[in-house]
Amino acid sequence: MKVFVSRDIPEIGIDMLINEGMEVEVWYAYDLISQEKLVEKAKQADALLCTSFDKIDRNFLTQCRHLKIISQFSAGYNNIDADAAKELGISLGHAPKAMNNATADVAFMLMITASRKFCHMHKSILKSDWKYFQPKANLGQELNHKTLGIFGLGNIGMEMARRCKGAYKMDTIYCNRTPNLAAEKELGAKRVSFEELLDKSDVLSVHSNLTEETKGKFDYSAFSKMKSTSIFINTSRGKLHVEEDLIRALQEGIIWGAGLDVTNPEPMKPDNPLLFMENVSVTPHIGSATIEARNEMSRLAALNIIEFAKGNEIPNKII
After folding, report:
1. Which residues are annotated as catalytic?
2. 2-98+290-309 and 100-282: same fold?
3. Is 158 exposed, middle or buried (0-12, 13-18, 19+ CB in 10 A)?
4. Tens digit of pLDDT for each residue in 9-64?
């Protein structure tokens, strides 16, 4: 089997494929592969190991309908037209759970850095603004016994809630399509409506998949229903929030602060107003950026292809 890998991923997955006797070609260039080149390379392969930044839409799938399997180096797969793949008989796999702890750590970190203005204060030192003690300046918020609201309480959201409960004794409320009974039993989490989530959360952390239903869910109307002291965290997908509305809500004091590991669009421009706000912390989509998480993502993505080639069930199957 010939496998094309669209990005230079950790060697563990590449080695697994090679050790199974597969012919592997990797896109080692620093820049993302163009759509035209992705199609060209995929046409020469039997399997594609791609990333969430690759556009696997109906047009791509139609041109590469010969592909037997596509395995994605991420948990999310909103970049893939799964319905089209199913129609064309192309199997799909992904790499879930690998980044649960790493992403929850980033969400937890963003909550703390936003609440204490860490990024802004660091930049103040670089600008030589650290001069005198000012008792009423640069005040942040404490997090003890606050209410954590989670939109999309799955595996990553569960890890975030555990951290918040353990460190700050925070209560958890959440908004899901279906109840998370494990979270309710372990953490005492309470399932609420979206409106109540907005109204009651001191920290609102987004961990939902990006779908047509959730796209732009956090707009000006949503922010207007949140507490003026609340902090908005998004480590899921940037398109879940409307960035212009978030900027406006922060500028008008509708909400107090924000922590973002994902932006809309990505990459964020260096003159984005969010980067200059005291109560905002932004990181460049590094939720899964640990050695452990990326190695596991590589292993799982490769394993899907290997098991498929052996005629076995895909371990982490999308369809």
Report:
1. 237, 266, 285
2. yes
3. buried
4. 999 999 999 999 999 999 999 999 999 999 999 999 999 999 999 999 999 999 99
pLDDT at 274 over 90: yes
Which contacts qualify for 181-185: CB closer than 8 Å, 24 or more apart? 182/158, 183/153, 183/157, 183/158
Cα dihedral 158, 159, 165, 168, rounded to 10, equals -140
Within 8 A by CB and 6+ apart from 142, the residues are 115
Answer CATH for 2-98+290-309 from 3.40.50.720, 2.40.10.120, 2.40.30.10, 3.60.140.10 = 3.40.50.720
CATH number of 100-282: 3.40.50.720
Q: Output the pTM of the full model.
A: 0.94
**Which spans in 169-264 are helix H?**
181-187, 194-200, 220-224, 243-251
What SS3 state is found at 156? Answer: helix
- The fraction of the chain above a pLDDT of 90, given in percent, is 99
Give dist(CA 13, CA 69) in Å, integer.
16
- For residues 274 and 88, what is the distance between their CA atoms, to the nearest angstrom? 42
**103: Cβ–Cβ under 8 A, 6 or more apart, which residues?**
156, 159, 235, 261, 287, 288, 293
Q: Where are the domains of the chain?
A: 2-98+290-309, 100-282
| 265 prior amide bond cis, ω within 30 | yes
Strand order in the sheet with 2-5: 23-26, 2-5, 47-50, 69-72, 91-93
Q: Which residue has the tokens 């690998």?
A: 98
> What one-character-per-residue DSSP string does 53-90 give?
TS-B-HHHHHHTTT-SEEEESSS--TTB-HHHHHHHT-
